[in-house]
Design brief:
The protein is α/β, with parallel strands linked by helices. The chain has eight helices and eight strands; from the N terminus they run βαβαααβαβαβββαβα. The strands form two sheets. A five-stranded parallel sheet has the order 2-3-1-4-8, sandwiched between helices. The chain has a three-stranded antiparallel sheet with strand order 6-5-7. Strand 5 and strand 6 form a beta hairpin.
Length: 224
Amino acid sequence: MTRVVVMMGAPGAGKGTQALRLSQELGLPHIATGDLFRENLSKGTPLGEKARGYMNAGQLVPDALVIDMLFDRVSQDDCREGYLLDGFPRTVAQAESLLERLGETPGNGVNLTVVNLVVPDEVIVERASGRLLCRGCDAIYHRTFSPPEGEACDACGGELYQRDDDRAEVVVERLKAYHEQTEPVVAWFQSWSGEPAVTVCEVDGNRKPEEVFEACVDCVKEVA
């Protein structure tokens, strides 16, 4: 049985952090589609060159090509027992393609668990828009949760700044896109009744990171 875990959640919900920890806990490779793109492009693989052609033409890389990259990666020996997907699928069409390809997996089938981190939009906006970084040593602060003692970095005295994509208006737009394009994927997985079987587990992400991690572990172990 191949074990596949799909981590989902809005941008800023803590999905990436929990995905890394969960993959280590389960002993499964952590596979992020962004990493797949960078690897294929940097190595100049045939799939990477196809993607580069679309990108250079200002076009979106087709879902079929993304799926090909993904399954080229998971065909490697370290994914024989399973893997954790982070950042994929992002649309219902991608979810459909994923399950179609998983249904073709040889052997004893697939055990697929979707872990969905749920965090209110206002909490995500507060988390991101309050974040400050140091230009000198990259230390991270938060205006509310871990503020610096003064106007400069406590560690090195460097200038503190806010990333452009952490501005409240940018975060709100990213959340809007998530709700329109990616959130429906969770409902689609919940309605799925075919093969492979899919278990969807929703986790309250508005807690301490350790509590969220323990809940994620409980989810995947319950359906193991």
